[in-house]
Amino acid sequence: MSSIRGFALLAVFAAVNLSLAHSAENPLSREQRRELGKKYLAEGKPKEAKDLFEELSKSYPKEAEIHLFLALASLRLRDPTAAEIAVRRALSLEPNHVEAGTLLGWIAMEVRRDYPTAVQAYARVVELKPDRPEALNNLGVALKKNGELDKAIENFNRAVALKSDYAEALSNRGWAYVEQRKWREAQADFEQALKVNAEDEAALYGLSQVLRESRDYAGAGQALRRLIARAPNFVYWLEWGRVELVRYYWVFLLVAVLVYLQGRYRRTRRRSDGGGDGQKT
Questions:
Q1: Comparing C-alpha atoms, which of 217, 195, 192, 220 is closest to residue 205?
Q2: Where are the alpha helices (DSSP H) in the chain?
Q3: Lower CB density within 10 Å: C or N end of the chain?
Q4: 92: Cβ–Cβ under 8 A, 6 or more apart, which residues?
């Protein structure tokens, strides 16, 4: 669930100005080519964007932003190795480049599953932008995946303190509490996240798990039915079936006992009615 749902990558795109420059000059200037590459990315043309930024990186090898956009284009083409090389090049040129650091953390966490590297990258971003709740949330997610739950919760706390209606941070903190088996705290976070965003699947699924652990099977089933209505995922159906089975376990057991006793009664009745036929004297 965790999931952390690709926010860091989206933040990199959002942080970059996608405004277009227009000019009749031919050939295009450096700035025009850069803006054209951004346009290709915005229009979903990563191959054209990558070709253009590769060409620019050869002409202007010391411009960090060009390498950052080359990394983004490579990611769009599902080439994380090339993306990591490009983003590390950007950081070698500008170590304090926030968007490049965020992207490196995202690649480490979501692609490489290299959580210590992700923690290091996101921690650096937090140093540079300590008042950015998204940076704190990203670091919290990396810490959680690295097994550092207390530190993760500390960062989620800071994110929520800066932005009280930050549903993603609330949901992520709830899942950290789940791993600590702090059901009451987790439930409070999931419910608060759903007040902010009723469509938050991670929070709704988390709430169903907490209610199940608290043996509120009716509440867990209701949460899962809401999930299924939004996203008919097989996992949600399976979870709902398990909850309903546990919820009605005693009913099933009682019916089974009644059927068994009825069968015993009928067999005993038959033996009693015909018992004399087979007796020896």
A1: 220
A2: 7-15, 30-42, 46-59, 64-76, 80-93, 98-106, 115-128, 133-145, 149-162, 167-179, 183-196, 201-213, 217-230, 234-247, 249-274
A3: C
A4: none
Rounded to whole angstroms, how far apart are CA atoms 138 and 98? 13
| C-alpha dihedral (44, 46, 49, 55), degrees to nearest 10 | 180
Q: What's the sign of the alpha-carbon dihedral 16, 142, 89, 46?
A: negative
d(CA 100, CA 62): 14
CA distance 180 to 205: 17
Lookup result for tokens 């009928």: 266
DSSP state of 110: I
Distances (CA, A) of 82 to 55, 104, 218, 232: 15, 12, 49, 36
How buried is 244 (Cβ within 10 angstroms: 0-12 exposed, 13-18 middle, 19+ buried)?
A: middle
Q: pTM to 2 decimals? A: 0.75
- Amino acid in the structure at residue 90: A
